[in-house]
Amino acid sequence: MSFQDSLAKLNSPVKDLVQSVAQKEYALEGKTDEDKDEVVKWIDKVAKGDVIKAENFKSLDATLVPQTYIATNYLTAADVAMYGALHPVISKLPPQEHFSHPSVTRYFDHIQSSPLVRESADSTSSFPVVSFDFSNAPKLERPAEAPKKKEKAPKDANAPSTSAAAANPEAKSTDAEGSKKEKKEKKEKNKDKAVAGADAGAKKDGKKAGGKNAPAADEGEPVPSMIDLRVGHILDVQKHPDADGLYIEQIDLGEETGPRTVVSGLVNYIPIEQMRDKYLVAVCNLKPASMRGVKSFAMVLCATSKEGKEGGIELVQPPANSKPGDRVYFEGAEFENATPLSQLNPKKKIFETIQPGFITLDSREAAWVNPATKSVHRIRTKAAVCVAPTLVGASLS
């Protein structure tokens, strides 16, 4: 079935909206034959009507958890059609039900905020903006915090919970209850983070996991391959309500658990308009840290001018057409096949030891320069090298 045939199946005003956006974006029907087939498939699903029924939102929500767009890794006619078809359903939902299916809500708001879609939608009265109170949205970090609930359940010191016992089999029964609970909680957190990190790494680079160079732990001298770098995509960014210099971002890192909450001190250096919808490189295995009451689960990798912050700060950019979760690694036989640590131990200062060697070359390419051998190891995905937009000789952090 051709693209035009699939569009003909859509009802107005959805069809009119798709055609209006298509006039402004040449790649709306897909950039490759495979993408075009996916776009047609999803438009056909939208035209049939079942996929956007409220009772099917659970299935649609599950589909959208790891995805920014429905058919490809960029905006297509399938997304415009899906948005148009969802609009009458979502616009009628009471506010308390907006986050019953959080991935659908996140996706809908992302598409309606796209400048291409918004311009065409505003030219008609059929698709007014639907407002969402994201301050009342479920916290995206809840899955990672779930083990805490299990630790609170047992009240009897002599009857530990099953999950706690499994996570901490070597805990001494003679410990005081307070100390015992604290140790269990720390081990439970570390276990969850290790599993999450290992799962993500296996999914993104399964062929290379377990290679000879893969570090099993953080013994020995710190090396850059211990750092977990991935391509991220900013789905939403807002100013921190309690800190003038901080942004709170929701960043898609290709994980099934959904985007991570990340706090960045970039308000005074990068305008919020330049943060929205951006692809970037994120450091994903730092220990989560609270910043003015909001827990941050990753760090945005930025280039800072050699003249200092006042000289400019830029987001390090992954190659064009990168996807959220794509592996970012350091060139060199000793690093390329290594598996990052699930979480960097802050006491060992691994990132702090490696970071001074991070720099942008004369080509603006991001790299790590070995301080001992002066060898240069560019930072890249399998497609190409990551770069800073304009800064040369910049430090990366």
Order of helices and strands: HHHHHHHHHHEEEEEEEEEEHHEEEE
CATH class of the largest domain: Mainly Beta
CATH architecture of the largest domain: Beta Barrel
Counting DSSP H or I runs of 4 or more residues, the number of helices is 12
- Which superfamily, in CATH terms, is the homologous superfamily of the largest domain? Nucleic acid-binding proteins
- Provide the low-confidence segments as ranges: 140-148, 153-178, 190-216
Computed Rg: 23 Å
Global outline: elongated
How many β-strand runs? 14
Mean residue pLDDT: 81
Summing up helix and strand content along with how strands pair, one would put the structural category as alpha+beta
Determine the fraction of residues in helical runs and give it as a percent range.
Answer: 25-40%
Instruction: Tell me what portion of residues adopts beta-strand conformation.
Output: 5-15%
Distance between the termini: 49 Å
CATH fold-level name of the largest domain: OB fold (Dihydrolipoamide Acetyltransferase, E2P)
Major sheet: size, sense and barrel closure?
9 strands, antiparallel
